């Protein structure tokens, strides 16, 4: 690797960064992260901070997980790559698919289609949903329903079901036949409803209305995150996902749970669907599947969908879809090791326990800082929503939130800013003392910047 000066000199120049304006990045180059250990990362200037972002919601096991590193090294020695397209397979892909179907058995998943990440997994689920209805002889069922504020990656299908204008406008026209219903978000919703149970009913009614308007027999699937992540950690009311499952069942609509963030313990349960006790028809997973050590994802397929494909005699059942890196053996080896560690360490229980401590501490920040309009937390995913004024809920200035993030970093804590939210998704191996360090750092950041 070239030296430090080369990296600083070329920072944000030959590279375009995701989710950023190239010119803004050049003007204000990003931090260069050089090392990770446990729940900490160290930047190019040697500053070591606690990573309250967990990479990007994914490094659940932290940066020093030897079993994953060993599994990757061993698999690289044995076989760095072979294709999983028809005719060949590899040991790690078979084993990982087996482990995943065991893992998501309570959610009713029986098959795994391996991908290279979350966007791939969403694309796969949407395509399989359409194909399912062709097999069933209902080829009019092509439309998708999704939640406003939902995030489902950046392929054209995923961007089409995304419920945030920032990820859509510049890429329109997107997939036709996608319709959004209001997110069950108590802090901001078009009904001005703050009671969670009532809000869940109102959003469910809006979904019913949309289905009636479109015609149920034109809708292939509904997709939602069990806890909305990138949209600002929106935790649906307890009843919401069950209501949605009932509506989907009544109208024969497939339900896809996008568990790219919520899978593998993040919410304090092994899956977000499990958290709400709902069985979707398909699940999309990625991120923590390898704890971020290798790009990998999967679309999990429930028994109803699997049976339709496997019993197909219509000729529509062959899967004309897949990625060169579907079932990459090194990624799968990383996945097998990551899942074993995740289970051994009962990261679901740790996320639940640390998440309660985090929620309490964040409420403390809210009492102290008027800028904090709302805090939302489920397990170890949290958002601190910053507002200029609590009554009007006017969002704070972009520059101010950037200053808060910088000051928090100076206090030793890496946080992520998304819109007017501070997003937290630390590694799930977090200790109680780490929770305190994170919240103290944010407290100091808020005080210093305001
Ligand atoms: N779905 C959800 C819920 C996500 O949060 C993300 C990524 N943040 C994706 C899909 C896309 O995943 P990837 O970035 O790995 O393509």
Automatic annotation (TrEMBL):
A Pfam cross-reference name: Aminotran_3
Annotated transmembrane regions:
none
Per the entry, which co-factors are needed? pyridoxal 5'-phosphate
Q: Which Gene3D superfamilies match?
A: Aspartate Aminotransferase, domain 1, Type I PLP-dependent aspartate aminotransferase-like (Major domain)
Does this UniProt record's set of keywords contain Ribosomal protein? no
Q: Give the keywords, sorted.
A: Aminotransferase, Pyridoxal phosphate, Transferase
Per its record, what are the GO molecular function terms? pyridoxal phosphate binding; transaminase activity
Question: What protein family is recorded?
Answer: Belongs to the class-III pyridoxal-phosphate-dependent aminotransferase family.
Return the PANTHER family for the record: AMINOTRANSFERASE, AMINOTRANSFERASE CLASS-III
Name of this protein: Aspartate aminotransferase family protein
Organism, by scientific name, is Bradyrhizobium betae
């Amino acid at each position: 690797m070239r030296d430090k000066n080369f990296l600083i000199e070329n920072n944000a120049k030959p590279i375009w960064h995701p989710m950023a304006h190239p010119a803004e990045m050049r003007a204000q180059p990003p931090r260069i992260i050089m090392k990770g250990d446990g729940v900490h990362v160290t930047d190019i200037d040697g500053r070591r901070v606690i990573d309250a972002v967990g990479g990007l919601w994914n490094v659940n096991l932290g940066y020093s997980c030897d079993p994953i590193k060993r599994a990757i090294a061993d698999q690289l020695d044995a076989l760095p790559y072979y294709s999983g397209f028809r005719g060949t397979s590899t040991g790690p892909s078979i084993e990982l698919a087996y482990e995943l179907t065991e893992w998501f058995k309570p959610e009713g998943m029986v098959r795994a289609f391996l991908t290279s990440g979350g966007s791939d997994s969403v694309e796969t689920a949407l395509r399989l949903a359409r194909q399912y209805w062709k097999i069933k002889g209902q080829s009019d069922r092509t439309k998708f329903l999704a939640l406003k504020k939902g995030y489902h990656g950046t392929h054209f299908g995923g961007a089409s079901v995304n419920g945030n204008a920032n990820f859509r406008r510049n890429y329109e026209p997107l997939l036709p036949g996608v319709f959004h219903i209001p997110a069950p978000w108590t802090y901001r919703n078009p009904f001005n409803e703050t009671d969670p149970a009532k809000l869940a009913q109102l959003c469910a009614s809006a979904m019913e209305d949309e289905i009636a308007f479109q015609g149920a027999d034109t809708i292939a699937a509904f997709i939602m995150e069990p806890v909305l992540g990138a949209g600002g950690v929106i935790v649906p009311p307890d009843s919401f996902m069950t209501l949605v499952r009932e509506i989907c069942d009544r109208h024969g609509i497939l339900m896809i749970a996008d568990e790219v963030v919520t899978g593998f313990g993040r919410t304090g349960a092994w899956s977000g669907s499990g958290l709400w006790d709902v069985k979707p028809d398909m699940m999309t997973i990625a991120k923590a599947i390898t704890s971020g050590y290798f790009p990998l994802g999967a679309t999990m397929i429930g028994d109803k969908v699997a049976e339709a494909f496997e019993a197909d005699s219509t000729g529509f059942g062959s899967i004309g879809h897949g990625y060169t890196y579907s079932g990459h053996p090194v990624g799968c080896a990383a996945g097998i090791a990551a899942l074993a560690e995740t289970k051994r360490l009962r990261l679901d229980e740790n996320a639940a326990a640390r998440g309660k401590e985090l929620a309490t501490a964040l409420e403390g920040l809210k009492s102290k800082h008027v800028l904090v309009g709302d805090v939302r937390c489920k397990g170890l995913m949290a958002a601190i929503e910053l507002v200029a004024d609590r009554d009007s809920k006017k969002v704070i200035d972009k520059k101010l939130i950037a200053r808060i993030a910088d000051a928090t970093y100076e206090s030793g804590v890496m946080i992520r800013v998304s819109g007017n939210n501070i997003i937290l998704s630390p590694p799930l191996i977090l200790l109680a003392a780490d929770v305190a360090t994170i919240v103290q750092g944010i407290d100091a950041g808020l005080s210093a910047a305001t």
